[in-house]
Amino acid sequence: MPILDCRGLTRAWGALRAVDDVDLAVEAGETCAVIGPNGAGKSTLFAMIAGNLKKTAGRVLLDGEDVSALPAHRIAARGVARTFQITAVFPGLPAVENVRLGLQAHDPLRRRPIGGGAALARGAEEALHWLRRVGLADRAATPAGELAHGDQRLLEVAMALAQRPRLLMLDEPTQGMSVEETRRTVDLLGRLIAEEGVTVLLVEHDMEVVFALAPRVVVLHRGRKIADGPAAEVRADAGVQAAYLGGLD
Ligand SMILES: Nc1ncnc2c1ncn2[C@@H]1O[C@H](COP(=O)(O)OP(=O)(O)OP(=O)(O)O)[C@@H](O)[C@H]1O
């Protein structure tokens, strides 16, 4: 059974069908990228899956269970973690605290005062572990807002991974990064995905990033899914090339 199974997902804004009858299933352990020209419906699709946006039609199943009507925090509690196109950290809090809060957010046991100091220390140690995983351990005490842009994006990845998600949704993880930062981030994400065995759904504009990370690529064009398959096949697909040439206006 796929971890994520979208059936007939549709979102209309007035007459515009931003996402139009999209089926998309993601199996455990897969990394799948969603690409498409500007306005193709990628962000709208992501927002519907994560419960941030109402669906006009269609269903989202997680592990076979219909979560279509659940709000974002309840979908998160079922193991869907996402990063945002725009970095969403608490800028005044140390990096490690940002991760620790993420750890607590979806685990009610950790919110209990019982255990007090010991539980708090364990939380901090675990948070530090995830910072180490993204190469930010030496900046644990730095307020998140003072980290370089690329490091803030990595902090978000640490926050998402700390939730031990069943499905990790990455929304343009290299957005706004320099060429060098992008290269390092792609290396790091590739390693993390392999080592943590996490299932990933990725939206990304940078084709180098897509082809480096995602064996499977789904293409949206004007809200519709026009291709879905192995990256090399999708790259060579004439319809996809035409959509890009016609769509990049
Ligand atoms: N709140 C809204 N109200 C009206 N139309 C919207 C709204 N949000 C998105 N749209 C429209 O829906 C379509 C799909 O937008 P969406 O942001 O999902 O595309 P995208 O593929 O993520 O684009 P980009 O690559 O530019 O981020 C676009 O035509 C957009 O203008």
UniProtKB/TrEMBL annotation:
One of its GO terms (cellular component) is plasma membrane. Keywords: ATP-binding, Nucleotide-binding, Transport. One of its GO terms (molecular function) is ATP hydrolysis activity. The keyword ATP-binding applies. The keyword Hydrolase does not apply. InterPro entries: AAA+_ATPase (IPR003593), ABC_AA/LPS_Transport (IPR051120), ABC_transporter-like_ATP-bd (IPR003439), ABC_transporter-like_CS (IPR017871), BCA_ABC_TP_C (IPR032823), P-loop_NTPase (IPR027417). Transmembrane segments: none annotated. Residues 4-247 form the ABC transporter domain. This is ABC transporter ATP-binding protein. The lineage of its organism: Bacteria, Pseudomonadati, Pseudomonadota, Alphaproteobacteria, Acetobacterales.
